[in-house]
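User: Modeling request: complex.
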Amino acid sequence: MPELPEVETIARELRRDLVGRRIVDVEVRWERTIALPSAAEVKPVLVGRQIMGTDRRGKYLLFPLSGGQTLVIHLRMTGQLHVVGPEATPDKHTHLVLTLDSGRRLFFRDMRKFGRVYVVADVATILRQLGPEPLNPDLTPQQLAARLAGRKAPIKSLLLDQRVVAGIGNIYADEILFAASIDPRRPGGDLQMNEIARIHTVTRRVLAQAIFDHGSSLQNYQRPGGAKGQNQERHQVFRRTGKPCARCGTAIVRVVIGQRATHFCPQCQR
DNA sequence: ACCACAACCTGGCCGC
DNA sequence: TGCGGCCAGGTTGTGG
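Assistant: Request completed. Predicted assembly structure:
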């Protein structure tokens, strides 16, 4: 569910409640949520640690802790993080509860149980494979071109590949390719430099706008306070099958690329 | 390198 | 109401 803009929103909105707080208790309610270390070991690793920051890399949330370890959370499809008061009770989808020295608690909820929590000394063990951050101003169109060169996979699949660029998921891949007027089925290596430059530019614009809108709430995504994002109101193609393209009026088409639903305008994207 | 497919899970929706 | 089938914003692993 959450992609870069949603994860960025969550990191920002957790900052006020988490940074500087100390973890005083840990309750694991679904053991497989804890990927590293084991569910049995995670409590002693976390209790007593102070949360030093709330950061994001790709779709991963990073919480550096006093003592040098980092709490890493990937929300996958349906994960949510909520800071709640002492009176709140965890429901059946709440798989991890961290109690803070403020008396408030951090709930990790995840209906589909795909989300994972890690505590590691070196975040590189988890982030090593990730490609560059698309919003990093140091990422040039030439570097993006180099990562697409020679690739025969459809550009849609390459944008979803976290080793090529980090943080883009199915919603924003479709929206980026519409904004860039590129057919999602085109092999990445076939794209001209001016087309890659367009993708580079609109990726930054689309993601920055989505962060400004606090992400896209289609089904499960919620901000830590329970509010929804607003960016779904700007979607041009995603889940708009059969509806008119805002630019030319042609009906938006849905196809499957790399096992993923893909939406595009057959007139504007060639 | 790439594709297809399965797994991991639950819930919503649709048709019958 | 119930049941089966399909769908879902993500990632990883297997086999070809």
